[in-house]
Design a protein that fits this description.
The complex is a heterodimer of chains A (about 325) and B (about 300). With about 325 residues, chain A is an all-alpha fold. Chain A is built from 12 helices and no strands. Chain B contains 10 helices and 13 strands. Chain B is an alpha/beta fold and about 300 residues long.
Chain lengths: ~325, ~300
Protein backbone atom coordinates (compact mmCIF):
# COMPACT_ATOMS: atom_id res chain seq x y z
CA UNK A 1 0.00 0.00 0.00
CA UNK A 2 1.64 3.23 -1.08
CA UNK A 3 0.82 6.50 0.59
CA UNK A 4 -0.04 8.05 -2.78
CA UNK A 5 -3.16 5.95 -3.17
CA UNK A 6 -4.29 6.67 0.36
CA UNK A 7 -4.12 10.41 -0.18
CA UNK A 8 -6.73 10.57 -2.95
CA UNK A 9 -8.80 13.37 -1.48
CA UNK A 10 -12.51 13.44 -2.21
CA UNK A 11 -14.06 16.51 -3.75
CA UNK A 12 -16.07 18.89 -1.63
CA UNK A 13 -19.78 18.21 -1.70
CA UNK A 14 -22.43 20.88 -2.02
CA UNK A 15 -24.57 21.29 1.06
CA UNK A 16 -28.26 22.02 0.70
CA UNK A 17 -30.12 23.45 3.66
CA UNK A 18 -33.71 24.53 3.41
CA UNK A 19 -36.08 22.54 5.65
CA UNK A 20 -34.33 21.66 8.96
CA UNK A 21 -34.54 17.89 8.69
CA UNK A 22 -34.94 17.44 4.93
CA UNK A 23 -31.72 16.72 3.05
CA UNK A 24 -32.23 16.21 -0.70
CA UNK A 25 -29.05 14.15 -0.89
CA UNK A 26 -30.42 11.77 1.76
CA UNK A 27 -33.63 11.38 -0.26
CA UNK A 28 -31.45 10.63 -3.28
CA UNK A 29 -29.53 8.05 -1.23
CA UNK A 30 -32.80 6.43 -0.15
CA UNK A 31 -34.15 6.33 -3.71
CA UNK A 32 -30.86 4.85 -4.85
CA UNK A 33 -31.15 2.13 -2.21
CA UNK A 34 -34.47 1.11 -3.72
CA UNK A 35 -33.41 1.36 -7.36
CA UNK A 36 -30.24 -0.69 -6.87
CA UNK A 37 -32.14 -3.80 -5.76
CA UNK A 38 -34.98 -5.76 -7.32
CA UNK A 39 -37.61 -4.29 -4.93
CA UNK A 40 -38.68 -1.44 -7.21
CA UNK A 41 -39.37 -3.37 -10.38
CA UNK A 42 -40.94 -6.30 -8.54
CA UNK A 43 -43.35 -3.89 -6.82
CA UNK A 44 -43.95 -2.09 -10.11
CA UNK A 45 -44.60 -5.33 -11.94
CA UNK A 46 -47.09 -6.56 -9.32
CA UNK A 47 -48.89 -3.19 -9.34
CA UNK A 48 -49.08 -3.32 -13.15
CA UNK A 49 -50.49 -6.86 -13.09
CA UNK A 50 -53.05 -5.91 -10.42
CA UNK A 51 -53.97 -2.80 -12.41
CA UNK A 52 -54.29 -4.69 -15.72
CA UNK A 53 -56.51 -7.42 -14.29
CA UNK A 54 -58.88 -5.12 -12.41
CA UNK A 55 -58.90 -2.73 -15.35
CA UNK A 56 -60.21 -5.52 -17.58
CA UNK A 57 -62.94 -6.41 -15.09
CA UNK A 58 -63.89 -2.76 -14.49
CA UNK A 59 -64.09 -1.98 -18.22
CA UNK A 60 -66.30 -4.98 -18.92
CA UNK A 61 -68.51 -4.00 -15.99
CA UNK A 62 -68.71 -0.34 -17.11
CA UNK A 63 -69.59 -1.31 -20.67
CA UNK A 64 -72.26 -3.69 -19.48
CA UNK A 65 -73.88 -1.05 -17.23
CA UNK A 66 -73.80 1.58 -19.96
CA UNK A 67 -75.33 -0.85 -22.45
CA UNK A 68 -78.06 -1.78 -19.99
CA UNK A 69 -78.87 1.91 -19.43
CA UNK A 70 -79.01 2.58 -23.16
CA UNK A 71 -81.35 -0.40 -23.60
CA UNK A 72 -83.61 0.75 -20.83
CA UNK A 73 -83.79 4.26 -22.23
CA UNK A 74 -85.48 2.91 -25.37
CA UNK A 75 -88.43 1.73 -23.30
CA UNK A 76 -89.63 4.53 -21.03
CA UNK A 77 -92.49 3.73 -18.66
CA UNK A 78 -95.84 4.12 -20.37
CA UNK A 79 -98.95 4.30 -18.22
CA UNK A 80 -101.48 4.91 -21.10
CA UNK A 81 -102.00 1.20 -21.89
CA UNK A 82 -102.64 0.17 -18.35
CA UNK A 83 -106.25 -0.76 -17.49
CA UNK A 84 -107.94 2.12 -15.65
CA UNK A 85 -108.31 0.11 -12.44
CA UNK A 86 -104.63 -0.86 -12.23
CA UNK A 87 -103.14 2.48 -13.28
CA UNK A 88 -100.69 3.79 -10.66
CA UNK A 89 -101.60 6.91 -8.79
CA UNK A 90 -100.06 10.19 -9.80
CA UNK A 91 -97.49 10.07 -7.00
CA UNK A 92 -96.55 6.47 -7.85
CA UNK A 93 -96.13 7.43 -11.50
CA UNK A 94 -93.90 10.28 -10.39
CA UNK A 95 -91.68 7.89 -8.39
CA UNK A 96 -91.42 5.42 -11.24
CA UNK A 97 -90.44 8.19 -13.65
CA UNK A 98 -87.78 9.48 -11.27
CA UNK A 99 -86.34 6.02 -10.84
CA UNK A 100 -86.28 5.58 -14.60
CA UNK A 101 -84.52 8.93 -15.06
CA UNK A 102 -81.87 7.94 -12.53
CA UNK A 103 -81.23 4.53 -14.07
CA UNK A 104 -80.86 5.98 -17.54
CA UNK A 105 -78.81 9.05 -16.61
CA UNK A 106 -75.97 8.18 -18.99
CA UNK A 107 -73.66 11.13 -18.02
CA UNK A 108 -73.89 10.21 -14.31
CA UNK A 109 -73.28 6.50 -14.99
CA UNK A 110 -70.40 7.39 -17.32
CA UNK A 111 -68.80 9.61 -14.65
CA UNK A 112 -69.17 6.96 -11.97
CA UNK A 113 -67.83 4.17 -14.17
CA UNK A 114 -64.95 6.36 -15.46
CA UNK A 115 -63.84 6.99 -11.88
CA UNK A 116 -63.99 3.26 -11.18
CA UNK A 117 -62.00 2.40 -14.30
CA UNK A 118 -59.40 5.14 -13.73
CA UNK A 119 -58.63 3.90 -10.21
CA UNK A 120 -58.25 0.27 -11.25
CA UNK A 121 -55.86 -1.82 -9.17
CA UNK A 122 -56.25 0.42 -6.17
CA UNK A 123 -57.02 -2.29 -3.63
CA UNK A 124 -53.97 -4.46 -4.30
CA UNK A 125 -51.83 -1.46 -5.28
CA UNK A 126 -52.26 0.16 -1.87
CA UNK A 127 -51.34 -3.09 -0.16
CA UNK A 128 -48.14 -3.35 -2.23
CA UNK A 129 -47.35 0.28 -1.40
CA UNK A 130 -47.70 -0.29 2.34
CA UNK A 131 -45.37 -3.30 2.02
CA UNK A 132 -42.90 -1.16 0.05
CA UNK A 133 -42.92 1.37 2.89
CA UNK A 134 -42.23 -1.45 5.36
CA UNK A 135 -39.31 -2.70 3.25
CA UNK A 136 -37.74 0.75 3.02
CA UNK A 137 -37.12 0.56 6.77
CA UNK A 138 -36.80 -3.15 7.58
CA UNK A 139 -34.29 -3.82 4.79
CA UNK A 140 -31.81 -1.77 6.81
CA UNK A 141 -32.04 -4.21 9.69
CA UNK A 142 -32.41 -7.42 7.67
CA UNK A 143 -29.26 -6.62 5.70
CA UNK A 144 -27.43 -4.86 8.56
CA UNK A 145 -27.15 -1.67 6.50
CA UNK A 146 -28.48 0.38 9.41
CA UNK A 147 -24.90 0.65 10.68
CA UNK A 148 -23.39 2.35 7.57
CA UNK A 149 -26.58 4.39 7.14
CA UNK A 150 -26.44 5.87 10.64
CA UNK A 151 -22.65 6.23 10.50
CA UNK A 152 -23.06 8.42 7.41
CA UNK A 153 -25.97 10.30 9.00
CA UNK A 154 -25.92 10.25 12.82
CA UNK A 155 -28.91 12.62 12.86
CA UNK A 156 -31.43 9.82 12.57
CA UNK A 157 -34.47 12.06 12.19
CA UNK A 158 -33.04 13.13 8.85
CA UNK A 159 -32.77 9.52 7.75
CA UNK A 160 -36.39 8.77 8.64
CA UNK A 161 -37.61 11.99 6.98
CA UNK A 162 -35.63 11.03 3.85
CA UNK A 163 -37.16 7.55 3.93
CA UNK A 164 -40.67 9.00 4.26
CA UNK A 165 -40.10 11.38 1.36
CA UNK A 166 -38.51 8.67 -0.81
CA UNK A 167 -41.40 6.27 -0.11
CA UNK A 168 -43.90 9.03 -0.96
CA UNK A 169 -42.08 9.89 -4.20
CA UNK A 170 -42.04 6.22 -5.19
CA UNK A 171 -45.71 5.77 -4.32
CA UNK A 172 -46.58 8.80 -6.46
CA UNK A 173 -44.53 7.27 -9.28
CA UNK A 174 -46.40 3.97 -9.08
CA UNK A 175 -49.72 5.86 -8.96
CA UNK A 176 -48.69 7.74 -12.10
CA UNK A 177 -47.90 4.52 -13.98
CA UNK A 178 -51.07 2.74 -12.80
CA UNK A 179 -53.21 5.81 -13.58
CA UNK A 180 -51.62 6.36 -16.99
CA UNK A 181 -52.43 2.77 -17.96
CA UNK A 182 -55.98 2.90 -16.55
CA UNK A 183 -56.84 6.29 -18.04
CA UNK A 184 -55.24 5.47 -21.40
CA UNK A 185 -57.03 2.16 -21.85
CA UNK A 186 -60.22 3.48 -20.22
CA UNK A 187 -60.53 6.55 -22.45
CA UNK A 188 -59.81 4.42 -25.51
CA UNK A 189 -62.58 2.02 -24.49
CA UNK A 190 -65.15 4.75 -23.79
CA UNK A 191 -64.40 6.64 -27.00
CA UNK A 192 -64.69 3.44 -29.04
CA UNK A 193 -68.12 3.03 -27.48
CA UNK A 194 -68.91 6.62 -28.47
CA UNK A 195 -68.70 8.34 -25.09
CA UNK A 196 -66.77 11.46 -24.11
CA UNK A 197 -65.33 11.09 -20.62
CA UNK A 198 -66.36 14.11 -18.51
CA UNK A 199 -62.93 14.91 -17.08
CA UNK A 200 -64.12 18.27 -15.83
CA UNK A 201 -66.58 16.52 -13.51
CA UNK A 202 -65.45 16.41 -9.91
CA UNK A 203 -66.91 12.92 -9.79
CA UNK A 204 -64.18 11.81 -12.18
CA UNK A 205 -61.04 13.69 -11.20
CA UNK A 206 -61.51 13.67 -7.45
CA UNK A 207 -61.31 9.89 -7.01
CA UNK A 208 -58.23 9.84 -9.24
CA UNK A 209 -56.59 12.60 -7.18
CA UNK A 210 -57.61 10.93 -3.91
CA UNK A 211 -56.11 7.70 -5.22
CA UNK A 212 -52.78 9.56 -5.39
CA UNK A 213 -53.24 10.75 -1.81
CA UNK A 214 -54.05 7.19 -0.74
CA UNK A 215 -50.90 5.82 -2.40
CA UNK A 216 -48.74 8.46 -0.69
CA UNK A 217 -50.34 8.06 2.74
CA UNK A 218 -50.16 4.25 2.74
CA UNK A 219 -46.47 4.55 1.90
CA UNK A 220 -46.06 6.73 5.02
CA UNK A 221 -48.03 4.20 7.09
CA UNK A 222 -45.77 1.44 5.76
CA UNK A 223 -42.65 3.30 6.88
CA UNK A 224 -44.26 3.75 10.31
CA UNK A 225 -45.02 0.02 10.54
CA UNK A 226 -41.46 -0.81 9.48
CA UNK A 227 -40.03 1.27 12.31
CA UNK A 228 -42.46 -0.05 14.91
CA UNK A 229 -41.88 -3.70 13.98
CA UNK A 230 -38.26 -4.15 12.95
CA UNK A 231 -38.69 -7.79 11.95
CA UNK A 232 -39.26 -7.72 8.19
CA UNK A 233 -41.69 -10.63 7.98
CA UNK A 234 -43.58 -9.52 11.08
CA UNK A 235 -43.94 -5.95 9.88
CA UNK A 236 -45.00 -7.01 6.37
CA UNK A 237 -47.61 -9.46 7.62
CA UNK A 238 -48.97 -7.01 10.19
CA UNK A 239 -49.25 -4.15 7.70
CA UNK A 240 -50.78 -6.27 4.94
CA UNK A 241 -53.05 -8.00 7.46
CA UNK A 242 -54.33 -4.76 8.93
CA UNK A 243 -54.91 -3.43 5.43
CA UNK A 244 -56.78 -6.53 4.28
CA UNK A 245 -58.84 -7.33 7.38
CA UNK A 246 -59.23 -3.72 8.52
CA UNK A 247 -62.63 -3.23 6.87
CA UNK A 248 -64.23 -6.62 7.67
CA UNK A 249 -63.10 -6.57 11.29
CA UNK A 250 -64.25 -2.96 11.64
CA UNK A 251 -67.65 -3.97 10.25
CA UNK A 252 -67.91 -6.77 12.81
CA UNK A 253 -66.82 -4.52 15.69
CA UNK A 254 -69.12 -1.65 14.77
CA UNK A 255 -71.93 -4.08 13.99
CA UNK A 256 -71.57 -5.43 17.52
CA UNK A 257 -71.58 -1.93 19.04
CA UNK A 258 -74.60 -0.98 16.93
CA UNK A 259 -76.55 -4.09 17.85
CA UNK A 260 -75.81 -4.37 21.54
CA UNK A 261 -74.57 -1.03 22.87
CA UNK A 262 -75.59 2.06 20.93
CA UNK A 263 -78.51 1.51 18.60
CA UNK A 264 -78.21 4.76 16.67
CA UNK A 265 -76.96 4.62 13.09
CA UNK A 266 -74.68 7.54 14.01
CA UNK A 267 -72.32 4.87 15.37
CA UNK A 268 -71.51 3.87 11.81
CA UNK A 269 -70.02 7.31 11.16
CA UNK A 270 -67.19 6.55 13.56
CA UNK A 271 -66.08 3.53 11.55
CA UNK A 272 -64.03 6.05 9.59
CA UNK A 273 -61.56 5.91 12.48
CA UNK A 274 -60.28 2.60 11.04
CA UNK A 275 -57.45 3.35 8.53
CA UNK A 276 -58.76 0.99 5.85
CA UNK A 277 -62.23 2.53 6.06
CA UNK A 278 -60.82 6.06 6.07
CA UNK A 279 -58.94 5.18 2.89
CA UNK A 280 -62.14 3.82 1.32
CA UNK A 281 -64.19 6.86 2.34
CA UNK A 282 -61.51 9.15 0.94
CA UNK A 283 -61.51 7.66 -2.55
CA UNK A 284 -65.29 7.21 -2.82
CA UNK A 285 -67.50 9.58 -4.81
CA UNK A 286 -70.57 8.86 -2.71
CA UNK A 287 -69.98 8.44 1.06
CA UNK A 288 -70.31 4.71 1.80
CA UNK A 289 -73.29 3.96 4.07
CA UNK A 290 -73.48 1.05 6.48
CA UNK A 291 -76.89 1.77 8.03
CA UNK A 292 -80.16 3.02 6.55
CA UNK A 293 -80.18 6.21 8.60
CA UNK A 294 -76.44 6.84 8.56
CA UNK A 295 -75.60 10.28 7.22
CA UNK A 296 -72.37 9.10 5.58
CA UNK A 297 -68.94 10.58 6.20
CA UNK A 298 -67.63 13.03 3.59
CA UNK A 299 -64.44 12.15 1.71
CA UNK A 300 -62.33 14.86 3.35
CA UNK A 301 -62.82 13.37 6.81
CA UNK A 302 -61.41 10.11 5.47
CA UNK A 303 -58.45 12.05 4.07
CA UNK A 304 -57.91 13.81 7.40
CA UNK A 305 -58.07 10.55 9.38
CA UNK A 306 -55.62 8.77 7.09
CA UNK A 307 -53.27 11.77 7.10
CA UNK A 308 -53.40 11.82 10.88
CA UNK A 309 -52.47 8.13 10.99
CA UNK A 310 -49.60 8.81 8.59
CA UNK A 311 -48.29 11.73 10.66
CA UNK A 312 -48.58 9.80 13.95
CA UNK A 313 -46.91 6.70 12.46
CA UNK A 314 -44.07 8.83 11.08
CA UNK A 315 -43.58 10.68 14.36
CA UNK A 316 -43.61 7.57 16.56
CA UNK A 317 -41.27 5.89 14.10
CA UNK A 318 -38.85 8.80 14.24
CA UNK A 319 -38.85 8.93 18.04
CA UNK A 320 -38.23 5.18 18.32
CA UNK A 321 -35.44 5.27 15.75
CA UNK A 322 -33.70 8.10 17.56
CA UNK A 323 -33.50 6.13 20.79
CA UNK A 324 -32.82 2.67 19.44
CA UNK A 325 -29.41 1.03 19.86
CA UNK A 326 -28.00 -0.21 16.56
CA UNK A 327 -26.06 -3.35 17.40
CA UNK B 1 -9.39 18.96 14.10
CA UNK B 2 -6.93 16.33 15.28
CA UNK B 3 -7.79 12.68 15.44
CA UNK B 4 -7.45 12.07 19.16
CA UNK B 5 -10.11 9.79 20.62
CA UNK B 6 -11.09 10.44 24.22
CA UNK B 7 -13.35 8.07 26.15
CA UNK B 8 -14.40 9.26 29.60
CA UNK B 9 -16.22 7.14 32.18
CA UNK B 10 -18.12 5.36 29.45
CA UNK B 11 -20.73 2.98 30.87
CA UNK B 12 -23.42 0.83 29.29
CA UNK B 13 -25.83 -1.05 31.49
CA UNK B 14 -28.20 -3.56 29.93
CA UNK B 15 -31.01 -5.00 32.03
CA UNK B 16 -28.93 -7.99 33.10
CA UNK B 17 -25.33 -6.96 32.56
CA UNK B 18 -22.91 -4.04 32.86
CA UNK B 19 -21.46 -4.40 29.38
CA UNK B 20 -19.09 -1.45 29.78
CA UNK B 21 -18.17 -0.25 33.24
CA UNK B 22 -16.68 3.22 33.76
CA UNK B 23 -14.15 2.95 30.96
CA UNK B 24 -11.71 5.84 30.29
CA UNK B 25 -8.82 6.01 27.83
CA UNK B 26 -7.33 8.09 25.03
CA UNK B 27 -6.15 7.01 21.60
CA UNK B 28 -3.42 9.05 19.91
CA UNK B 29 -3.07 9.95 16.22
CA UNK B 30 -0.13 8.62 14.23
CA UNK B 31 -0.24 5.28 16.00
CA UNK B 32 -2.10 2.03 15.74
CA UNK B 33 -3.92 1.33 18.99
CA UNK B 34 -5.18 -2.16 19.68
CA UNK B 35 -8.35 -2.67 21.71
CA UNK B 36 -8.06 -6.07 23.33
CA UNK B 37 -10.35 -8.18 25.38
CA UNK B 38 -11.93 -11.63 25.45
CA UNK B 39 -15.13 -12.20 23.53
CA UNK B 40 -18.02 -10.50 25.31
CA UNK B 41 -15.78 -8.08 27.21
CA UNK B 42 -17.56 -4.98 25.85
CA UNK B 43 -15.27 -4.01 22.95
CA UNK B 44 -18.00 -3.83 20.33
CA UNK B 45 -20.36 -1.98 22.66
CA UNK B 46 -17.62 0.56 23.42
CA UNK B 47 -16.87 1.12 19.72
CA UNK B 48 -20.58 1.49 18.95
CA UNK B 49 -21.00 4.01 21.74
CA UNK B 50 -18.07 6.00 20.35
CA UNK B 51 -19.90 6.05 16.98
CA UNK B 52 -23.32 7.07 18.33
CA UNK B 53 -24.88 3.75 17.35
CA UNK B 54 -25.46 2.73 20.96
CA UNK B 55 -26.49 5.27 23.59
CA UNK B 56 -24.22 5.22 26.67
CA UNK B 57 -25.82 4.88 30.10
CA UNK B 58 -23.18 7.33 31.32
CA UNK B 59 -19.96 8.93 30.15
CA UNK B 60 -18.85 10.47 26.87
CA UNK B 61 -16.72 9.68 23.86
CA UNK B 62 -15.24 12.37 21.61
CA UNK B 63 -13.29 12.42 18.37
CA UNK B 64 -11.05 15.46 18.10
CA UNK B 65 -13.04 16.93 20.98
CA UNK B 66 -16.44 16.46 19.29
CA UNK B 67 -19.08 13.81 19.90
CA UNK B 68 -19.73 11.69 16.80
CA UNK B 69 -23.36 12.83 16.66
CA UNK B 70 -22.20 16.46 16.51
CA UNK B 71 -19.74 15.99 13.65
CA UNK B 72 -21.13 18.02 10.76
CA UNK B 73 -19.66 15.64 8.19
CA UNK B 74 -18.82 12.44 10.10
CA UNK B 75 -17.46 10.40 7.18
CA UNK B 76 -14.82 13.09 6.58
CA UNK B 77 -13.51 12.54 10.11
CA UNK B 78 -14.11 8.89 11.00
CA UNK B 79 -14.23 5.76 8.90
CA UNK B 80 -15.59 2.68 10.68
CA UNK B 81 -15.64 -1.02 9.80
CA UNK B 82 -17.92 -2.81 12.23
CA UNK B 83 -19.57 -5.82 10.61
CA UNK B 84 -18.26 -7.83 7.71
CA UNK B 85 -21.64 -7.97 5.99
CA UNK B 86 -23.18 -4.51 6.21
CA UNK B 87 -24.52 -4.46 2.68
CA UNK B 88 -27.70 -5.58 0.91
CA UNK B 89 -27.07 -9.05 -0.54
CA UNK B 90 -28.66 -8.14 -3.86
CA UNK B 91 -26.77 -4.88 -4.37
CA UNK B 92 -23.44 -4.64 -6.18
CA UNK B 93 -20.37 -3.44 -4.31
CA UNK B 94 -20.20 -0.31 -6.42
CA UNK B 95 -23.87 0.54 -5.82
CA UNK B 96 -23.46 -0.04 -2.08
CA UNK B 97 -20.72 2.60 -2.05
CA UNK B 98 -22.67 4.92 -4.34
CA UNK B 99 -25.56 4.92 -1.86
CA UNK B 100 -23.11 6.04 0.83
CA UNK B 101 -21.58 8.61 -1.55
CA UNK B 102 -25.06 10.06 -2.13
CA UNK B 103 -25.78 10.17 1.60
CA UNK B 104 -22.43 11.79 2.43
CA UNK B 105 -22.59 14.19 -0.52
CA UNK B 106 -19.79 12.83 -2.69
CA UNK B 107 -19.88 12.28 -6.44
CA UNK B 108 -20.36 8.70 -7.70
CA UNK B 109 -16.78 8.46 -8.95
CA UNK B 110 -15.60 8.46 -5.34
CA UNK B 111 -17.05 4.92 -5.13
CA UNK B 112 -14.72 3.77 -7.91
CA UNK B 113 -11.76 5.53 -6.28
CA UNK B 114 -12.15 3.71 -2.97
CA UNK B 115 -12.83 0.40 -4.74
CA UNK B 116 -9.51 0.90 -6.48
CA UNK B 117 -7.87 1.79 -3.16
CA UNK B 118 -8.79 -1.58 -1.63
CA UNK B 119 -8.19 -3.56 -4.81
CA UNK B 120 -11.83 -4.48 -5.31
CA UNK B 121 -12.37 -2.86 -8.74
CA UNK B 122 -12.62 -6.20 -10.61
CA UNK B 123 -15.59 -7.20 -8.40
CA UNK B 124 -17.27 -3.77 -8.42
CA UNK B 125 -20.22 -4.93 -10.54
CA UNK B 126 -20.82 -8.17 -8.67
CA UNK B 127 -23.57 -8.58 -6.12
CA UNK B 128 -22.60 -8.56 -2.47
CA UNK B 129 -23.95 -12.07 -1.89
CA UNK B 130 -21.19 -13.46 -4.14
CA UNK B 131 -18.38 -11.76 -2.16
CA UNK B 132 -15.99 -13.81 -0.04
CA UNK B 133 -15.42 -12.76 3.56
CA UNK B 134 -12.14 -11.14 2.57
CA UNK B 135 -13.88 -9.14 -0.17
CA UNK B 136 -16.58 -8.08 2.29
CA UNK B 137 -13.95 -6.77 4.70
CA UNK B 138 -12.31 -4.86 1.84
CA UNK B 139 -15.67 -3.37 0.86
CA UNK B 140 -16.09 -2.32 4.49
CA UNK B 141 -12.74 -0.55 4.38
CA UNK B 142 -13.65 1.05 1.05
CA UNK B 143 -16.83 2.41 2.66
CA UNK B 144 -14.81 3.71 5.60
CA UNK B 145 -12.42 5.50 3.22
CA UNK B 146 -15.12 7.40 1.26
CA UNK B 147 -14.55 10.62 3.21
CA UNK B 148 -10.74 10.22 3.36
CA UNK B 149 -11.05 10.28 7.18
CA UNK B 150 -8.52 11.15 9.87
CA UNK B 151 -9.57 8.24 12.05
CA UNK B 152 -10.23 4.57 11.32
CA UNK B 153 -12.16 2.46 13.82
CA UNK B 154 -12.30 -1.27 13.12
CA UNK B 155 -14.03 -4.09 15.02
CA UNK B 156 -12.21 -7.43 14.67
CA UNK B 157 -11.18 -6.75 11.06
CA UNK B 158 -9.04 -9.88 10.84
CA UNK B 159 -11.94 -12.22 11.65
CA UNK B 160 -12.24 -14.81 8.93
CA UNK B 161 -9.43 -13.40 6.82
CA UNK B 162 -6.85 -15.68 5.23
CA UNK B 163 -3.14 -15.01 5.93
CA UNK B 164 -2.80 -12.93 2.78
CA UNK B 165 -5.83 -10.85 3.74
CA UNK B 166 -4.48 -10.31 7.25
CA UNK B 167 -1.14 -9.18 5.81
CA UNK B 168 -2.90 -6.77 3.45
CA UNK B 169 -5.00 -5.37 6.30
CA UNK B 170 -1.95 -4.94 8.53
CA UNK B 171 -0.03 -3.05 5.84
CA UNK B 172 -3.02 -0.90 5.03
CA UNK B 173 -3.53 0.14 8.64
CA UNK B 174 0.20 0.75 9.25
CA UNK B 175 0.37 2.98 6.14
CA UNK B 176 -2.71 4.87 7.32
CA UNK B 177 -1.23 5.48 10.78
CA UNK B 178 2.14 6.47 9.33
CA UNK B 179 0.44 9.48 7.75
CA UNK B 180 -0.30 10.86 11.20
CA UNK B 181 -3.82 9.47 11.29
CA UNK B 182 -5.50 7.47 14.04
CA UNK B 183 -6.16 3.73 13.92
CA UNK B 184 -8.20 2.07 16.67
CA UNK B 185 -8.68 -1.63 16.08
CA UNK B 186 -10.26 -4.25 18.31
CA UNK B 187 -9.22 -7.87 18.56
CA UNK B 188 -9.36 -10.79 20.96
CA UNK B 189 -5.91 -12.03 19.88
CA UNK B 190 -2.91 -10.47 21.56
CA UNK B 191 -0.50 -12.13 19.15
CA UNK B 192 -2.16 -10.42 16.23
CA UNK B 193 -1.92 -7.05 17.97
CA UNK B 194 1.75 -7.59 18.74
CA UNK B 195 2.47 -7.46 15.02
CA UNK B 196 0.21 -4.50 14.27
CA UNK B 197 -0.26 -2.16 17.20
CA UNK B 198 1.93 0.46 18.86
CA UNK B 199 -0.33 0.81 21.88
CA UNK B 200 -2.88 -1.50 23.43
CA UNK B 201 -5.85 -1.06 25.69
CA UNK B 202 -6.93 -4.28 27.39
CA UNK B 203 -10.38 -4.67 28.90
CA UNK B 204 -12.22 -7.55 30.49
CA UNK B 205 -15.82 -7.68 31.73
CA UNK B 206 -16.25 -4.09 30.59
CA UNK B 207 -13.44 -2.78 32.80
CA UNK B 208 -9.94 -1.54 32.06
CA UNK B 209 -7.27 -4.13 32.75
CA UNK B 210 -4.14 -2.57 31.29
CA UNK B 211 -3.06 0.09 28.83
CA UNK B 212 0.24 1.26 27.39
CA UNK B 213 2.67 0.52 24.60
CA UNK B 214 2.63 -3.05 23.33
CA UNK B 215 6.22 -3.71 24.46
CA UNK B 216 5.57 -2.41 27.98
CA UNK B 217 2.37 -4.40 28.32
CA UNK B 218 4.01 -7.57 27.11
CA UNK B 219 6.99 -7.02 29.40
CA UNK B 220 4.66 -6.54 32.35
CA UNK B 221 2.32 -9.45 31.76
CA UNK B 222 4.39 -12.05 29.97
CA UNK B 223 6.37 -14.46 32.10
CA UNK B 224 10.01 -15.06 31.15
CA UNK B 225 10.24 -18.00 28.82
CA UNK B 226 11.02 -21.47 30.08
CA UNK B 227 14.39 -23.02 29.21
CA UNK B 228 14.22 -26.35 27.41
CA UNK B 229 17.08 -28.70 28.03
CA UNK B 230 17.86 -32.03 26.36
CA UNK B 231 20.40 -34.08 28.22
CA UNK B 232 21.13 -37.78 28.95
CA UNK B 233 21.90 -36.71 32.55
CA UNK B 234 18.55 -35.33 33.60
CA UNK B 235 18.82 -36.44 37.23
CA UNK B 236 22.30 -34.91 37.80
CA UNK B 237 21.18 -31.59 36.30
CA UNK B 238 17.96 -31.59 38.32
CA UNK B 239 19.87 -32.07 41.56
CA UNK B 240 22.22 -29.18 40.70
CA UNK B 241 19.28 -26.93 39.74
CA UNK B 242 17.73 -27.41 43.22
CA UNK B 243 20.28 -24.76 44.32
CA UNK B 244 18.31 -22.17 42.35
CA UNK B 245 14.71 -20.99 42.75
CA UNK B 246 13.32 -22.97 39.84
CA UNK B 247 10.35 -25.12 38.94
CA UNK B 248 11.05 -28.20 36.89
CA UNK B 249 8.97 -30.16 34.43
CA UNK B 250 9.80 -33.44 32.76
CA UNK B 251 8.11 -33.25 29.36
CA UNK B 252 9.80 -36.41 28.01
CA UNK B 253 12.70 -38.79 28.23
CA UNK B 254 16.03 -36.95 28.54
CA UNK B 255 14.20 -33.62 28.66
CA UNK B 256 13.84 -30.91 31.25
CA UNK B 257 11.79 -27.70 31.23
CA UNK B 258 13.21 -25.12 33.63
CA UNK B 259 11.34 -22.04 34.79
CA UNK B 260 12.69 -19.21 36.95
CA UNK B 261 16.20 -18.84 35.55
CA UNK B 262 17.66 -17.93 32.16
CA UNK B 263 19.55 -20.17 29.74
CA UNK B 264 23.00 -18.97 30.91
CA UNK B 265 22.27 -20.04 34.47
CA UNK B 266 21.05 -23.46 33.31
CA UNK B 267 24.27 -23.82 31.26
CA UNK B 268 26.39 -22.95 34.27
CA UNK B 269 24.47 -25.49 36.39
CA UNK B 270 24.98 -28.14 33.71
CA UNK B 271 28.71 -27.49 33.72
CA UNK B 272 28.81 -27.81 37.50
CA UNK B 273 26.75 -31.03 37.35
CA UNK B 274 28.96 -32.39 34.54
CA UNK B 275 25.79 -32.96 32.49
CA UNK B 276 26.16 -33.37 28.74
CA UNK B 277 23.88 -30.91 26.85
CA UNK B 278 22.19 -31.78 23.53
CA UNK B 279 19.88 -28.79 23.48
CA UNK B 280 19.52 -25.56 25.43
CA UNK B 281 16.81 -23.20 24.17
CA UNK B 282 14.73 -20.40 25.62
CA UNK B 283 11.07 -20.63 24.67
CA UNK B 284 9.32 -17.39 23.63
CA UNK B 285 6.91 -16.01 26.24
CA UNK B 286 3.42 -17.25 25.49
CA UNK B 287 1.45 -14.08 24.97
CA UNK B 288 -1.92 -15.73 24.64
CA UNK B 289 -1.41 -17.59 27.92
CA UNK B 290 -0.33 -14.38 29.63
CA UNK B 291 -3.28 -12.52 28.19
CA UNK B 292 -5.66 -15.24 29.32
CA UNK B 293 -4.13 -15.11 32.79
CA UNK B 294 -4.59 -11.35 32.89
CA UNK B 295 -8.25 -11.58 31.98
CA UNK B 296 -9.00 -14.89 33.68
CA UNK B 297 -12.27 -15.18 35.49
CA UNK B 298 -13.65 -12.25 33.57
CA UNK B 299 -13.90 -13.89 30.19
CA UNK B 300 -16.79 -16.09 31.18
CA UNK B 301 -20.08 -15.83 29.36
CA UNK B 302 -21.93 -12.97 30.95
Amino acid sequence: MSSATLASAPTEPAEARSVPSLRPRLVRAELRKIFTTSTWWLTGLLILIATALTLLVNILDANQRLRAAEQMRLHPPDFSNAPPGQRPSASEQQAILEDFARRTDIPAILAEQSANVFTSGQFLGLMLIVILGVLVVTNEFTHQTATPTFLATPRRTRVIVAKLVAAMVLAAGYWLVATAVSVGVGVLNFSLAGYDVPFASMQVWRPVAMNLLAYVLWAVLGVGFGVLIRNQLGATLTAAGLYLIGLPSALILFGFIHTYLIHSDVVWNFIVAVPGVASMVMVSVEPPRFGPEQTGVPWWIGALVLTAYGVVAGMIGTLITRRRDIS
Amino acid sequence: MDGQLVVSNLTKVYPKVRAVDDLSFTVQPGRVTGFLGPNGSGKTTTLRMMLNLVTPTAGTATIGGVRYADLPRPLDVVGAVLEASSAHKGRTGRNHLRVLCAAAGYPDRRADEVLDLVGLSPAAGRKFRSYSLGMRQRLGIAAAMIGDPKVLILDEPANGLDPEGIKWMREFLRAFASQGRTVFVSSHLLGEMQQLADDVIIIAAGRMVAQGSVSDIIASIAEPGAVRVRTPHVDQLAVELRNYAVTLEYPGENQLLVRGVDAATVGRAALAARAELHELTTEAPDLEQAFLKLTRGQAAIR
